[in-house]
């Protein structure tokens, strides 16, 4: 389903969502690629998503094959440029407002674009489960550096850039087959089991372990709201499912919430 064809959320569903947010004090939000499509960054699985054009390089392929690293950079360079130019949209902005209202404990994000922080959410409240495209990292010594300098090297003709230690350089994001950062995953699990409302925004909930986080909350009786264009495997476990466009829907919900808490 594309952004253009997504139906609007029914007023009574919005009202139910606002009531759940009003009652909650410790809201954990999980965002996926659908939170950033309105900033012009395509998601993976939609009809015009990135995977319709090219399948991602796995970590094992990246480590073992110069051709795979070349392919990785061919895809990564335009994506990184797109992410560097992208600006936060109504979803990111509404979530900063939720923090201002004192209800947000954290945004656990599968996104690598840094747009929650760019919108003004406190960096310590953003848990980047899949890393960040704003930095580069060495696969051997894990030294971090700004991605822009590395992109310049690739643009200048290096299609297999190396670290001073000899390791391969890549964006500081998680490829399939690469373990998730341990501290972030532990923090995300702790948040999922201590929040009093779990809110999923713009995720197909098909990538584990991120997709298991709302289940941890539901197992403890915590209410779950899902806002996503398409159905997800967890829809049946959710208290409210909004098959609608994230930006305008969330903006309406937060505006109602703000009015009532004024
Ligand atoms: P996904 O591509 O699997 O799912 C995105 C979901 O968002 C889809 O179900 C789609 O219907 C929905 N969606 C798209 N636009 C929407 C909108 N405006 N409003 C409401 N729903 C919308 O993405 P995922 O679940 O995050 O998991 C896939 C992986 O994609 C993650 O590992 C993430 O790292 C990576 N990714 C990140 C970015 C980014 O940082 N912006 C972009 C592409 C992919």
Give keywords.
single chain; 262 residues; alpha/beta; 6-stranded parallel β-sheet; 3-stranded antiparallel β-sheet; 9 helices; 9 strands; 38% helix; binds nicotinamide-adenine-dinucleotide
Task: Please characterize this protein's 3D structure.
The structure is a single chain. With 262 residues, the protein is of the alpha/beta class. The protein is built from nine helices and nine strands. The chain has helices at residues 11-23, 59-64, 66-85, 90-100, 115-119, 147-155, 182-194, 213-219, 246-261, and strands at 27-31, 104-109, 126-128, 131-138, 144-146, 169-173, 197-201, 224-227, 240-242. Strands 3-2-1-7-8-9 form a six-stranded parallel sheet, with helices on both faces. A three-stranded antiparallel sheet has the order 5-4-6. β4 and β5 (144-146) form a beta hairpin. α1 crosses α9 (246-261). The longest helix has 20 residues, at 66-85. The two termini are 36 Å apart. The model has no long low-confidence stretch (mean pLDDT 93). The chain binds nicotinamide-adenine-dinucleotide (NAD). Nicotinamide-adenine-dinucleotide binds at residues 1, 3, 32-34, 36-38, 41, 43-46, 49-50, 110-113, 130, 202-204, 206-207, 228-230, 245-246.
Which compounds are bound in this model? nicotinamide-adenine-dinucleotide
Radius of gyration: 19 Å
Strand order of the largest sheet: 3-2-1-7-8-9
**Which runs of at least 5 residues are low in confidence (pLDDT < 50)?**
none
User: What distance separates the N and C termini?
Assistant: 36 Å
Structural class: alpha/beta
How big a fraction of the residues is strand?
Answer: 15-25%
Helix content: 25-40%
Number of separate helices: 9
Categorize the overall geometry: elongated
Largest sheet at a glance?
6 strands, parallel
Q: What is the arithmetic mean of pLDDT?
A: 93
The strand count comes to: 9
What is the H-and-E element order?
HEHHHEHEEEHEHEHEEH
